[in-house]
Amino acid sequence: MIELTPQILDPEKFTSAVRRSTNGAIVTFLGTTRDNFEGKGVLTLEYEAFDEMAVKKLEEVRQELMAEFGLDDVAIGHRTGTVAIGEISLVVAVGSPHRKEGFYACHKAVDRIKEVVPIWKKEVYADGSRWVACEDHEFTHEHEAALQGGDG
Amino acid sequence: MELTVRLFALYRERAGTKEFSLELPVGSTVADLTDAVRLRYPRLAPPDVKIVVAVNADYAEPEDPLKPGDDVCLIPPVSGG
Description:
heterodimer; A: alpha+beta; four-stranded mixed sheet; four-stranded antiparallel sheet; 10 strands; 36% helix; 35% strand; elongated; B: alpha+beta; five-stranded mixed sheet; 5 strands; 22% helix; globular
């Protein structure tokens, strides 16, 4: 099961989806929205997704993990839109015959999701906002000088 | 050929638009497209930073060819979770 939604995520729905009588473990990861970044208060988070591609990539991650770890099912849910502090932004539920594979698969799922799925998170502060992980896109003084030179 | 380029998150905000159209010669590649994008929006990304492109909802390589009607999207660094 893959779900990309602006609605509140109910983890029980995802764990239920991967429950099987052949499994001995369900490992669940819940990503929740944090109220601080480097000492700065975060008021809320805004998630934006390239919906069609995000769903496609989430399904690819799901299929990869099921194949690699021999799992029956993996369920992933991700929020979009404005998410209040303390709410769940990501759910990964992995059903597995044994716990070890379940833990590995769940860890890997979260890493892969953060790496390849086109979803963006913006932290909103009292005095501004920031797109997370875009530090490499900040313009330095050298960049600015080059752009000014180009204009002249 | 005319292509519609869609923007998300940081790129959408920096360009001030969700999409724009771009006229490129037939046979252009993804690298040609990002060159044209940088000329049009010099403040989208610093020149030494790669602009990641998705074509038809899959990550594309710089040498990949483009064809009319392709769904082209610019993908700033992702941060889901």
